[in-house]
Amino acid sequence: MVSQELKDLALHAAMGTAPTNYTAESVDEALRGELNKLASNLNEFMSNRYDIYNIIIETADQVVPKKVLSSLGMFADVQFVPQNQRAIFKRGKLGKARARKFVTQVGLSGLYETFRLDQENFELAAHAVGGAATIDFERFLDGAETMSEVMELVTEGLTDAVYIEVQRALRRAVQDGNFPANNKVSVNGWKPDEMMKIITNVRSYGDNAVIFAPPEFIAAMGPDALVPVATAGAQAVYHPQDIDQLHNVGFINLFRGCPVIMMQQSFTDENNEKVWIDPQMAYVLPSGRDSKVVKVVMEGPTIIWDFTNKDQSMEIHTYKKMGAAIMTYNDWGIYQNTEILNNVDEDIYGY
To answer: What is Dmax (Cα atoms) for the chain?
Structure first.
């Protein structure tokens, strides 16, 4: 029987926190010591591995939802439902002007389907997303690899999978023929007035607009010229807050009254050549209303099983059901800066 203390240690290790009488630095060491009691040799590990996997499952199922809500809660409605239950989302109010009633969501085949909303509610189905982490048993016993690292890989991998689902739905929604042409700008470079056109459209459906973009896009925005250059030899005037933000963190966080939220970027390969969020794209979404553009569902518990390779290393496979949908109303927009290097990994989007 796995003790509650061991479960608590695993949760703290995954969250980077420490319980009473522990320091953050000692949590991993204490967790490794407790897990080694369950895996002091190969036979012990094989006998207790499902208890260890249950620790990973319980940890992931507590940590991943918190990370998802923290990262996506500003612009996404997120539901967590039991196994074999679909999430029901309300369509919500249409805002200050009537919007088109379409939804783009993932289908079971991995393709995206667009359909008309004729009811106040709609169902969002989930599909399985999986990955694997490999551990060398000897290195595990020696402390060179820890279960806390495996748990970190699992929780980060599942969280990243949710981001990718949202990205897939956003990109597919823009490609849909129902997306308004006036809500999309594709230009070579950063042109503040073009972004402002989109913001003006989006603001008509909410109290304000929020810009969500990867770091590459925000870096290209630069400070906004309050007084542009009018004559040769003159200098533009910038807001001091923009200058301070660029000096302190390298990015602006406000554009003409609209918050600029950085989307978490990451590489999909070990050579740091391919990224999983399109660096050219920024999404402008309405804020201050009861229904959010993005809908996310996570269904059932995390599932884990293992596979032993010929060299006796072990692969721990995980999967979880999730899905995303985009309300493809004419109340949100997109800006594409084609001047930015497009090194997105298209393979992860499946089309």
So the answer is: 80
Amino acid identity, position 256: R
Q: How far is CA 172 from CA 97, 165, 256, 298, in A?
A: 24, 11, 28, 20
How far is residue 103's CA from residue 333's CA, in Å, rounded to a whole number? 15
Which of 99, 136, 65 has its CA nearest to residue 313?
A: 136
Residue 184 φ then ψ, to 5° = -130, 135
Beta strands 127-135 and 314-327, pairing class = antiparallel
For residue 107, give both structure tokens. Answer: 């289908």
Contact status, residue 24 vs residue 17, Cβ threshold 8 Å: yes
Q: Give, in order, the Cα–Cα distances in Å from 73 to each of 13, 68, 70, 154, 317.
A: 24, 7, 6, 21, 28
Q: How far is CA 236 from CA 219, 310, 324, in A?
A: 19, 65, 43
* Segments of the chain scoring below 50 in pLDDT: 1, 94-119, 351
> Are the CB atoms for 340 and 277 separated by under 8 Å?
no
Tell me: the pLDDT tens digits for 200-251? 999 888 788 899 999 999 999 988 877 777 666 677 788 888 888 887 888 8
- 298: tokens are 């996570």
Query: Cα separation of 116 and 119, whole Å?
Result: 9
pTM of the model: 0.73
Distance CA 99, CA 93 (A): 10
Q: How far apart are CA 49 and CA 62, in angstroms?
A: 20
Position 120, amino acid: E
Q: How long a stretch of residues is the chain?
A: 351
CA distance 312 to 143: 17
Contact 313, 256 (CB under 8 A): no
